[in-house]
Design goal:
The complex is a heterodimer. Chain A contains 10 helices and 17 strands. Chain A is α/β, with parallel strands linked by helices. A 6-stranded mixed beta sheet of chain A has the order 6-7-8-3-9-10, with helices on both faces. A 5-stranded mixed beta sheet of chain A has the order 14-13-15-16-17, covered by helices on one side. A 4-stranded antiparallel beta sheet of chain A has the order 2-1-4-5, with helices on one face. By secondary structure, chain B is mainly α. Chain B has one domain: ABC transporter involved in vitamin B12 uptake, BtuC (Orthogonal Bundle), CATH 1.10.3470.10. Chain B contains 14 helices and no strands. The longest helix of chain B is centred in the first third of the chain and has 35 residues. Classes of the chains: A alpha/beta, B mainly alpha. Chains A and B meet through helix 2 and strand 6 of A and helix 9 and helix 10 of B.
Chain lengths: 341, 343
Amino acid sequence: MEQHATIIEGKRLGIGYRNGKSITTVHKGLDFRLRCGELTCLLGANGAGKSTLLRTLAAAQPPLDGELTLLGKPISGYSERERSRTIGVVLTDKTQTGGLTVYELVALGRQPHTGFFGRLHRTDKEIIEHALHAVGILNKARRYMAELSDGERQKAMIAKALVQECPLILLDEPTAFLDVVSRIEIMTLLHRLAAEEKKAILLSTHDIEQALVLSDRLWLLTRSNGLECGVTEDLILSNRMDTLFETQAEQIRFDLMHGVFSPTVEGRKSICLKAEDEVLRHWIQNALNRQNYFCLPPSAAQPQCPVLEAASPRNFTLTANGQTRTCHSFDELLQETASLP
Amino acid sequence: MGHKGFIYGGTLCASILALIAANLFLGSVDIPAQDVARILTGGEAERETWRYIVWESRFPQCMTALLCGAALSASGLMLQTVFNNPLADSSILGISSGASLGVALVMLVGGGTITAGAFTLSGFITVILGAFVGAACVLGIILFLSSLIKNAVMLLIAGIMIGYIASSLISLLNFFATAEGVHSYTIWGLGNFGGVSLEQLPAFSAMIAAGLLIAVLLIKPLNALLLGPRYAENLGINIRRVRNLLLAATGLLTAVTTSFCGPVSFIGLAVPHIARLMLGTSNHNLLMPVTLLAGSAIALLCNVICILPGGAGVIPLNAVTPILGAPVIIYVIVNQRKIQYFN
């Protein structure tokens, strides 16, 4: 498949729930497309409608309005079997697969391609082995799912989605419940799979840190702005990240420098900070922010405000009210700054 | 299938043959072995009553045990997979109570006694129909409740409650029934593989075979259902159709076994666990056939134990099945952290 070909496209899409005659609209007028070879992360606060959107894309629920086309054809025109060969999913659902081997679990992903009794032919077996290799658990193929770590289980589920041979893979919070090493591993794996296996991969996540590093594109979903799509850096530098947690805008802000959300600093006191390097400046700010200090560069500081000069993490010089003190650790420094009026 | 499948399959087939022999050669009437052999090969026996006992009583009872064991175990396995719940089975979820209620309604409204064996063909079809409607109703309720109750244990408790409701309705019916009806209901409730006569055996076998056929044909979607309904749907499984077929198969198997043999407990619950523990897999490709064979073997074993007292009488079936089944379940619960399929 041609690189960057559109796999799925939504135009003025309305999503939500239809229950008899009552209709609950979660979002309307969503426009988006997913391209092959790209990893896209769907970010949004809890309740923003991420799961509803993913379910609609997976055709587990019909759209309320607008067009949803998969490989140029309306999604409603797909049969169950065609769909199962086009969209693969990885969910957070509880499974009872502990008694299956990793190989057997991954083989379940071949069901859309196998016959009535699900017999595996040679090509099926080759595809399964390729997928196990691609996610890096070929050596665990004969182990029980129950014996795997959470990260390895998630890799097995990703391999299951791979052997479905779908151009589109949707993952619902694949890194939830994983430790930081596994989170980075899974995200790196997905990024590599998108590029190498020419898949369009969309995943919802709360792990913004990893998403910003590895995602080719971001989808920001909010109640008020709907869906905003774009290349990660375009969205960040046009300050779109601050819209993500709109209701908590008072308490948190997006740190453009470091790509993380952090609590809003209540700068009740100011200090003039002169630091040797960027790393030192960052961590001094981090420490002083906890004491509600607002750190100013020398150019912006008032003449009477205290001045902190940092040469190294072991050497701080604090000048306040005409007195100069030297500190040799953050511990000493913070005791001094805490006692300043 | 693989290496393991052949070993266990072969061993189970051999034990089934041995147990069939035990069922045919042992009984409350002492018949010499060479006479039994002669009768079975179509020869003449020393006494005509012996021929009658072997062909009219022991043979159908043995076949009934064989088929019922497979039927109960298959429905237990299907229910455990569909409800994502290793402790589900038709007696725990109240499905056999539903079938019993259906039987009781047909019987008592019809004014007779509760033993399908005593019926003419049309009566016997009505009884099975009643049992099927009862079982299907409870299955429908459980299926509906399972969409409301996400907790597996809570769903089991809801099933037990439905079973209680069905049982108390039966008691109410019994209150208005004749003493004879109550007596025969009590006997029926103890469970007995001897409820199918030689004339009824072909129809009985055909219905069980139909249910088992559906179970075997559903192996592929059952495997997909191990991942839960949403994953299965993504693998191209039509959840509604598969659930309806499973409902029909378990309803049919439970209804037929319950109306003839009474509500037989524990076989459906324990046998799938025995099969999983033996094989070390939840993969239905292997699990389903081994469950069927193990179910037949265990039902035949239970029947042998029932007739062991010989001339002194017959032990009720439902006194034997819990002794074999309950320890398995307790073992499974105690060791659930160590057993792969629980995790």
